[in-house]
Amino acid sequence: QTCALPISRAKGCATQVGTDMLFEQIPPVQSWGRQFILNPFADRKQGGTPVRVVADQNNTVVSVNGSSVATLQAGEVYQRNYWESAGVTSTSVNTGLLLTSTKPVLVSVYMKGGGSFLGQTGDPAMAFIPPFEQFLTRYTVVSAPGNTAQLMNLMVPTASVASLRYDGRSLVAGDFENTWATVAGSTYSVAQIISSLGSHTLT
């Protein structure tokens, strides 16, 4: 991060009221993949979700929903703001994307910080998306205190939606922020559910 004015230890960048720095440990190149399912953040109802793709090798063709969007050389980046068309605050977006590449890539998504310009509250966030060939059959996740909303993005094989269990039970209508939607060109479906504080298991 850079600032036009001197940086204050107490307040960070002197040109802003508050700032957030995002850190993630980059996984080893051997674990990068070629097939990814993406889903927007449920509580960011406008402004879009930035998606960033980093190539490991030359002549890496990146496609979204079957259409080529970039050819990258090693170390180059493709970035685009997806789901930006959801410009109203009353409707969440639940349209998944299938992102594929001809050679291994690293994919990250970014939650924009809230505020009056987005009509939402909350800090920004960053997450690396694992390729779906590395998906597991069991996950334990923790919702920490101090947040105003507890939401989860789910990417599940469509054939397994009916058998999915959340804390040992089936999902019901009241669990969903947005119910299941199939991802075009894939065998996956996505949904966004309302969670609660504490530890939860998905199987």
Characterise this structure:
The chain is mostly beta strands and 203 residues long. Helices cover 0% and strands 39% of the residues. The strands form 3 sheets. Strands 1, 2, 3, 4, 5, 6 and 7 form a 7-stranded antiparallel β-sheet that branches. A 3-stranded antiparallel β-sheet has the order 9-11-10, with no helix packed on it. The chain has a two-stranded antiparallel sheet with strand order 8-12. The radius of gyration is 18 Å and the shape is globular. The protein starts with 32 loop residues before the first strand and ends with a strand. The model is unreliable at 7-14 and 86-91 (pLDDT under 50).
What gyration radius follows from the Cα positions, in whole Å?
Answer: 18 Å
The secondary-structure class comes to mainly beta
Helix fraction bin: under 10%
Count, helices: 0
Instruction: Outline the low-pLDDT stretches.
Output: 7-14, 86-91
What coarse outline follows from CA principal-axis ratios? globular
The largest sheet is: 7 strands, antiparallel
Features:
3-stranded antiparallel beta sheet; 203 residues; mainly beta
Topology overview:
Layout: E1 33-38, E2 49-55, E3 60-64, E4 67-72, E5 77-82, E6 97-111, E7 125-128, E8 139-143, E9 151-157, E10 176-182, E11 188-194, E12 198-202
Antiparallel strand pairs: 1-6, 2-5, 2-6, 3-4, 3-6, 6-7, 8-12, 9-11, 10-11
Provide a short characterization of the protein structure.
Helices cover 0% and strands 39% of the residues.
